[in-house]
UniProtKB/TrEMBL annotation:
<dbReference type="Pfam" id="PF12146">
    <property type="entry name" value="Hydrolase_4"/>
</dbReference>
<dbReference type="InterPro" id="IPR051044">
    <property type="entry name" value="MAG_DAG_Lipase"/>
</dbReference>
<dbReference type="InterPro" id="IPR029058">
    <property type="entry name" value="AB_hydrolase_fold"/>
</dbReference>
<feature type="domain" description="Serine aminopeptidase S33">
    <location>
        <begin position="79"/>
        <end position="211"/>
    </location>
</feature>
<dbReference type="GO" id="GO:0016787">
    <property type="term" value="F:hydrolase activity"/>
</dbReference>
<keyword id="KW-0378">Hydrolase</keyword>
<dbReference type="InterPro" id="IPR022742">
    <property type="entry name" value="Hydrolase_4"/>
</dbReference>
<protein>
    <submittedName>
        <fullName>Alpha/beta hydrolase</fullName>
    </submittedName>
</protein>
Length: 287
């Protein structure tokens, strides 16, 4: 059974009051069982695992170890100047195909990540801290191999993970953050509640993961990372995004140096292939 935080057609688990009470009771009475159930239900992305790029072929592929499995990295181009692209929940790197093609035309190589439990990576379960771990590992791997990482282009949950990276890993890199769900955890709790699942179950899962990684989940909230915003951070957001509220990102960037490029009518994901968005990314990369 899979649960998608960024999809409007959500499964509802029977009568809400009953399922909410049951999931709450299991969390209280049997924490181990509820943790296993919660991970299977809430950390299993509903996304396409088998895909091919339509017009591009990677020049190399790499598989990088993480605590939850191997991330799959497709490399396009042979330039030493590298851009990393990171998808969001229940997605894969093929959504960046138009952006990758454009970045190559500007003289960059691109490392396109399939996070664990997504696309061609291994594993069945993942979470935000594993996204952060994968991005950290990817940056360190390519910098150790003498690549100059010029930018990170990230979408949705990938953007949240990017802003959670250590400040030293973001230094001297442009950040292009697309459809960023500023209130990421509020969105998670809202979706869980609407599906008729107890919020206590999600809290239990988040606290367990945080303990494993040595970070409390509330420290991952983007309100804790405003100090990482600079004129090197570029946000792209659609006014009609159903999942990542436009007003939230607009308020988040008040009094900040970061730039906000606004689109209309593209929603949460279609921005990735939009010509105006791609032209804006080109402008960012050449400025």
């Amino acid at each position: 059974m899979k649960f998608n935080y960024f999809h409007s057609k959500q499964t509802r688990f029977g009568i809400h009051t009953v399922t909410r009470a049951l999931s709450s009771g299991i969390t209280r009475v049997s924490p181990k069982i509820s943790l296993s159930l919660g991970k299977k239900l809430l950390l299993n992305p509903f996304g396409k695992r088998h895909y091919e790029f339509q017009r591009l072929q990677p020049d190399q592929t790499h598989h990088l170890d993480t605590s939850l499995g191997k991330a799959h990295i497709s490399i396009f181009g042979n330039s030493n100047k590298l851009v990393i692209v990171s998808h969001g929940w229940a997605d894969n790197s093929s959504g960046f195909e138009a952006i990758i093609s454009n970045l190559q035309s500007l003289g960059y190589s691109v490392a396109a990540i399939d996070h664990v439990a997504h696309g061609k990576a291994s594993g069945k379960h993942t979470h935000l801290l594993n996204f952060i771990e994968t991005l950290t590992t990817t940056i360190q791997y390519f910098e150790a191999n003498e690549h100059q990482i010029e930018a990170i282009v990230a979408h949705s949950m990938g953007a949240v993970a990017t802003l959670n990276l250590p400040a030293e890993l973001l230094k001297n890199k442009k950040l292009v953050l697309i459809a960023t769900p500023i209130n990421f955890f509020e969105l998670m709790f809202e979706k869980v509640d609407k599906a008729g699942i107890s919020k206590k179950l999600l809290t239990h899962v988040l606290e367990s993961i945080g303990l494993q990684f040595g970070r409390h989940w509330q420290s991952l909230c983007l309100s804790q990372h405003l100090d990482k915003l600079s004129d090197n951070a570029y946000f792209i957001h659609d006014q009609e995004d159903k999942y990542a509220c436009y007003d939230a990102v607009s308020r988040y960037l008040e009094a900040q140096k970061s730039n906000l490029f606004t689109t209309q009518g593209l929603g949460h994901r279609r921005l990735l292939g939009d010509t105006k968005v791609i032209a804006h990314i080109s402008q960012v990369m050449t400025s």
